Amino acid sequence: MSWQSFPKIELHLHHEGAAPPDFIRRLAQEKSVNLSGVFAEDGSYAFRDFAHFLQVYEAATGVLKTPDDYARLTATVLERAAEHGVIYCESFLSPDFCGGRDLGAWREYLHAIQEAAAHAEAQTGVTLRGIVTCIRHFGPDKARETAICAAETAGDWIVGFGMGGDETRGRQGDFAWAFDCAREAGLKLTTHAGEFGGPDAVRQALDDLRVDRIGHGVRAIEDPALVDRLAGSGTVLEVCPRSNLALRLYPDMRAHPVERLRAAGVRVTVNTDDPPFFRTTMTREYEALERAFGWDEEVFTQIARTALEAAFCDDATRERLAKRLEAGLKAAT
Ligand code: MCF
Ligand code: ZN
């Protein structure tokens, strides 16, 4: 089975992290920015471990400076998504990088991104929505400012609030004010937890931030009572299998817990996180999961439906996409 044209929904994608190395190199050249240490000899992104990944990520994506840079990136992101059968995608965007948490500047970036997304949707048929994301290692004060930008721009395009970054610092609960602010503005919530933070971070995300979904969440597997809790509550995990392998959380796909979580009744979805950084695409994720666990059309159909149910978009958009998804599934199976 070729999975490339199988219809897919992606819920965990960092907007800047989806920038191909060539895109970043071209921008760096245009702006005369020196990016030594970012690329390997073969031209791909190079990093040793999680801490180094975060550094390389911020150096590489730091060349994205203007609203127009983000408009160009948005077109590229949606073209790539379309190539891999994605019909709906939510991406993490941050006022921390777009305008330094200044609300006026953030609105300008957002305007450019939304305009580019609308244009690209007309060309590719991929629908994009944004999740405003605070950066954990920038600390709770900056997260508060980011949440205010999120609350002020919440609507039918900015549909969620989240947190990424270095999970080994502080506790999820340190960011409760930011998440409460976003929730009060009507935004749905997700946070990176249970990747490098272990199962306790997942519990904190549920108890202290009261999130709707969990980014990664895979290390819940280390705590059977937590697995039961996730299965019981129906909390959706945004699993990014090849990201976890690239950052050496697991030695290979067969050791990855996504199948054990699914078998225990946890609602899992499949995502790419930062595709060019992890040398992945949605198609490669599907191929690797088929190879490791024998996942077939039935499993991937279930996963796409789960992802659409857990999407943060409004119900009218969900219903429109559900029709497209079901038609695509029928054609593919
Ligand atoms: O999911 C991966 C690895 N785990 C944690 N954080 C990140 C990942 N990819 C990007 N991030 C972080 C990173 O700090 O999210 C931020 C980056 O600066 C971007 S979110 C707009
Ligand atoms: Zn992520």
From TrEMBL:
Keyword Metal-binding among UniProt keywords: yes
UniProtKB keywords: Hydrolase, Metal-binding, Zinc
Record has Metal-binding as a keyword: yes
Pfam families reported in the protein's UniProt record: A_deaminase (PF00962)
SUPFAM superfamilies according to UniProt: Metallo-dependent hydrolases
Molecular function terms, GO-annotated: deaminase activity; hydrolase activity, acting on carbon-nitrogen (but not peptide) bonds, in cyclic amidines; metal ion binding
UniProt superkingdom: Bacteria
Cofactor: Zn(2+)
Residues annotated as domain Adenosine deaminase: 7-326
NCBIfam families, per the entry: aden_deam (TIGR01430), PRK09358.1-3 (NF006848)
Entry similarity comment: Belongs to the metallo-dependent hydrolases superfamily. Adenosine and AMP deaminases family.
Designated name of the protein: Adenosine deaminase
